[in-house]
Amino acid sequence: MAERIFAADDENLEAVQDFIREQIGGTCENVKTLMQIDLAVEEIFVNIAHYAYTDGGDVTIQCDISDEPHIMTVVFSDSGKQFDPIAKPDPDVTAAIEDRGIGGLGIFLTKKYMDSVKYSYTNGQNVLTIEKTLD
User: Fold this and answer.
1) What is the pTM of this model?
2) What total of structural domains would you count in the chain?
């Protein structure tokens, strides 16, 4: 499993996405799947960058692509404030925009687009794992 550590800062989003794309390599050429992965990675990383730390911190990202079938697993770990983003109820996407609360749409889309989204709090770290079959 490839691993990199990034400062939890918006400025590193492109480097994070490049890291994930490098791991995917030629195992997926489906543009829709790649866009869904980009959205999920962006949502998770930016949320960590904005909310996990008050004075900055790091995010460890591990990525692995299994052999046939090609399943991508990405693990985000941070030692910021404990927070389970998948515990929050999904937003009511049928409600009028003005009746919806702020936030929650990004993790909703992440849960919708990924095959699996899991959270745990282990050894003082938030650990969010996403999986996606690469077609």
Assistant:
1) 0.90
2) 1
